[in-house]
Amino acid sequence: MTLPACARPLADEIARRAAAGRPLRLWLRDDDAVAPTAALDTLLALTARHAVPVLIAVIPALTGAALAARLAEAPLAGVAVHGWAHENHAGPGEKSQELGAHRPAETVLAELGRGFKRLAALHAGRFVPMLVPPWNRIAPAVVDGLPSLGFKALSVFGPEKPAPLAVRNTHVDIIDWRGTRGARPAEAVIADLVRLSQAHDGPIGLLTHHLVHDAAAWALMALIFEATAGQAGCVWERAEDLVG
Fold first, then answer.
1. How many other CB atoms sit within 10 Å of the CB of residue 82?
2. Angle, helices 105-122/140-149, rounded to nearest 10 degrees
3. Which residues neighbour 20 within 8 Å (Cβ) at sequence distance 6 or greater?
4. How far apart are CA 108 and CA 84, in angstroms?
5. pLDDT tens, residue by residue, 37-47
6. Gene3D superfamilies from the entry (predicted)?
7. Is 4 helix (H, G, I), strand (E, B) or coil?
8. Residues 32, 43 contacting (CB under 8 angstroms)
9. Which residue, 21, 139, 166, 190, is the most exposed by fewest CB within 10 angstroms?
C-alpha cells in the first residue's frame, strides 16, 4: 500500500514504535449519536473495514430502540453516556455546558443516573460505563459524584487531570470547529498524532462526529486507518479495555 506524502510522518513514527517494541496505542470516540442514519452507517462500515473499535457517545434522552438494534449489528461498536439531553444550561456569553455548575450537582447527577440506566438497558453487552460530557465540559462537583452512579471512567478532550475515576480523554479532533467546520488539514492531524506519540506512551484518543462529517473528514479517517490499522507498531484499543 502506498500512502500519500502527508501520511508518511505517521507511518515513520509507527515503524519507529515497532522497532522499539512499544506500539502506538490509539482509540476512537465518536460523539452525538441518537438514531440510525446514513452517516452512522458510513462510520460503522469504515471502522469495520479496518477492524477499528469505536466508542459511540449516545445522548440518552433522545435515543431509543432503533439505535440499539442498529448497533447490535456492529460488534466493534461500544456505547458511552453522552450527558443526558445535550442541552446547554450556560448563560449568555459563556461556553456551552450541560454538566456545568449552573444547576445543583444533585440535579445534574440525577439526570446522568437516568442516562446510565437507560443506555445500560438498551445496549446490554456493548455498554461502557464511561461518561462523555457534551462539549467536553463538566463541573468538578459533578465529577466527584460519578462513581456513586456506577461510572468507571470519564472522557473529555485534552490532557488528563486527576479525578476519582479513570480518565480516558481524546486528544486529536479531526473537525475544524472554529473555522470551516469541516475536516482539518490532514497534515495538521497527522502532526498532532506524531507529536503526541513522541510525548508519552499512554493511549491517544481520536475524536470524530459522524453527523457533521464532510467528504474530506471521511477521507481523513480512512487515511489514518490505512496508515495505522494492522501495523505492528500500532494498536487500536477497545474503550472497555481502557476502562477495565
1. 29
2. 40
3. none
4. 9
5. 999 999 999 99
6. Glycoside hydrolase/deacetylase (3.20.20.370)
7. coil
8. no
9. 21
